[in-house]
Amino acid sequence: ADPIFTAAETAYRSGQYQEAVHAFQSFLALSPADPRIPDARLRLGQSYFALKDIKRSMEELNRVVREFPKSDQTEQARLLISRIHYTQGNPDDSLAELRILLRESRNRDVAAQAYLLRGNIFVERKDTALGLSQWQKSLSMTDEQEEIRRVYREMVRIMEKNTVSEKTLIQIVREAPREFPADLSLFVLGKRTWEGGDPIKASRLFEKFYSLFLGHPLSDEAKNYMEQGVHLASLSHIRIGCILPLSGKQKEIANQVLQGIRFSVDRLNASFLEKRIELVVKDTEEVPEKAKARMEALAGDPDVMAVIGPLMSRSVVEAASVAENAHLPVITPTATAEEVTRTGTYIFRNAMTNAAQARAIARYAVGQLGLHTFVVLYPDDYYGTELNIFFVKEVTALGGKVICSAPYKRGTVDYGPQIQNIIQKDLQKILSRNADMVAQDQDSMNEWLKNYFPSFDAVYLPGYAEDVGLIAPQLAYYNISSVQLLGSHHWNSVELIRRGERFVEGAVFTDGFFADSTHTDIAEFVEGYRRTYGEEPTLFSAQAYDAAEMILQVLYKGGKSREDIRNGLLAQKNFPGISGLTHVLASGDMEKELFLIRVENGSFQQIN
What we know:
The chain has 608 residues and is of the alpha/beta class. Helix content is 57%, strand content 12%. It has helices spanning 2-13, 17-30, 37-50, 54-67, 72-87, 91-104, 108-124, 128-140, 145-161, 166-175, 182-195, 199-212, 219-234, 251-269, 288-299, 313-326, 354-368, 382-397, 416-433, 442-450, 465-477, 494-500, 520-533, 539-556, 562-570; strands at 238-244, 277-283, 304-308, 330-332, 347-349, 373-379, 401-408, 458-461, 484-487, 508-511, 575-577, 580-584, 590-592, 595-600, 603-606.
């Protein structure tokens, strides 16, 4: 049992929750009387919670409370139960659990987290005074500096989210200017002012915070805002170029990209009486040679610090030498061809590539779902073919196996021939594995076919929503209904659910942007974009917005030249992009944490 428990604990701590579940279940089956049973049950509940399986999580946590009422694990279980009630929109149930927990708790760390959660609930109910009193108790029980910093960040998040009025915040600061909760209120005032588009006023508020609360857990963040405000005040007439096919066939995408860029730059310019950042927009008309000419014009303007675009891979390749010779940083927000970032050391790409998509879904399937054998059914265009190649390569590297890849033509209605081909190949492999027991003739094949059950774990369908919506029911018709369906970003359409109905329930796909994400920054971006342009932001507008934000962030930190911007971009390691957490590689490519989206009850839900 010892090595199994150790392996389970290691899997849990490394975030491999599916593996942790299997290992802890094995431990429990082997060692029903082991003193570590409460730990294993608690970890199971925590792992299920991390996997978004709330029902099983609650079953395990309640079992800990019921079977081991006096154990230390019961306090942890009650705390997570109360969090689940809170996140599921049941604050009264959460408060009931917290009352029991705080009445019986012997663990200061658990009690601190319980008071923090109580404070969150009361602030969200607009009872700010009671919420602040609970937070103060949480801080009084917390000793480690990093944990105190985490508590403050959580309090700031809740205060911002629930829009405690500016009048209330100012009143709190006046009543007790050098102690809690004045520190929290002053920091929230500064952050809200910054995000409201007035970084100069915000930097003065952070300067006041920094002078009043020396050595505060949020001092470093306040200092960072102060420095950014100083640099912003020193900006003077900086230009960013945009090279886009505004009059070509791709003009709709070009406009989405331009709106994403403008949304970012306009927010900064709103902080000043006069425009500090100017966009210089050039139309390529989808002609690669014109992209080169437009790059030459921008490169010759010393005020142009960086360029966003071109969009098409051929246009980027055509214009790359001009940017390289002029030491002009270029970020393409859409080009996906592999060779794009090999064309120069000043070329960057903030776009979801097909390789990244395939890699993300393969790692999720093998690493988190524990799946090992796959088939691929893909459209025989460039998109589907590339995704098939990259998926097979990644699955193989992870130790899995793709037993069959079958192409189909776009617009196909009857996918029976392709599915039957997959079944035939699967049956051949099943029969060959059982060659010593089963006759290898057509009669045997036909007999197995009557009772066919797939030997593979999942089907990867890197296609388009309207096609996949037809494929899924046909897979079920041929008894391929017990396997996981996996997909790519073109699934992100209501057509998938409209056509696929119940047959796509539980299917998972990747995308580079998810407008319905509950992440605070993304929700704020989507709301502001809708308000400004009267339409939904797309993957392209999100990637373009992030490209502009990364350039502006270098300027915030004092960048004043093209070389500063290039070096600043290369230094980005964990940029919190709207299109995913972004890490800039030495090659100029940007590695992203893509969104994993599952079909749940007829709608799309983010699961990471």
